[in-house]
Amino acid sequence: MRSYTGPTVAGGVSTIECPSWCVTDHAYWDDQADDCFHQSAPLEVAVPRDRVRSGTRPLPGVLETTLRLHSTDPAPSAALVWLEMNERTDDSVELDLAGVDKLLSSLDSYRAGLLELRGLLAGIDAARRT
Is residue 24 a contact partner of residue 2, using CB atoms and an 8 Å limit? Predict the structure, then answer.
């Protein structure tokens, strides 16, 4: 486990322990030890480029998700999953455990529907190639 010794909000110095999943370089950011966030490595899904209109429209880019935990706040709300839906705008959402569960359920339904559409597309593609 890594530790970080840095300034505090009150002007002192404190040492905190980072969770094993934290990838934040607190020293680089000169974080306040009693008011910073530990953050996981991001999970990312890149949206494929449009095969026809490539470059003509800005794309959402990446769906990025990280786990964040406040360094000293023991409240459940101090731990969250941060979901950033567009790297070019401030379209982000903080999710608690119930929110993550709801998102996972929606993603399962979305994936099932996308697989069905992919099957239909594969059938059309195969029929047009014969």
Answer: no
3-state secondary structure at position 108: helix
Its pTM stands at 0.78
Question: Cβ neighbours of residue 81 under 8 Å, at least 6 residues apart?
Answer: 65, 66, 67, 68, 94, 95, 96, 99, 100
- For the chain, count helices (H), then strands (E): 2, 7
Residues in a beta bridge with 66? 82
88-106 tens-digit pLDDT: 677 789 999 999 999 999 9
Please give the distance of CA 93 from its chain centroid, rounded to a whole number: 9
Bridge partners, 64 (sequence order): 44, 84
